[in-house]
User: Fold this.
Amino acid sequence: MAQRPSEESGYIQDPDGDECDFKVVWTEDHCHKIQGQFRFRPKWGYQMMRNRDAYEQVIWGVSVPDLRTLAFEPQFEFAYDIWSAIDVPGGAVDQRGEHPITLSAAIHTPEQAKQKAFSEVTPLAQCKQFATTPSFRQTFPTGIRIKPDAGLYIIEWSISRTEHDGTRDRQPSGSVGGRFEWNSNDEKLRQAIRIANAM
Assistant:
């Protein structure tokens, strides 16, 4: 299961745990082992505005957060390790070579999930492909803004070794992924900003 975001972590990780926890699957021929991990980083931001006194007069030189502009600007973080069998399928492994990897993720409402009409999908829903080293970790901006209190969202992700890469080994596909919920209703966040502003 994915863990809930906290002030300390700042992300939801699938699978639950720390940086060393991965979902694991072998390709169909047991020649490659795929370890994958995904982190959803809600990340938020806001604009600043001039502070005003009790008479609604601007206090020059003092700016405060404008909570009306508060919005989540989520990010997707992918991490994987690809291990290749040394001698026999499913046996001892090491890390070598390049691998055709496809990263995919999307965020949408439960209603969109039911209708398969993902109007809130991110550019990553169209997938990003990499033929890189066997070990990888990178964070991508989603390019969307979500207002607090917008309700429940569903995040889906996958990391796939997608096709034959031209070497002598047979390399069928294999994929890890997951699906979890994120609640954008966050009064605690607003309260934390108010407290910080009052200090």
Q: What stands out?
A: Helices lie at 110-115, 187-198.
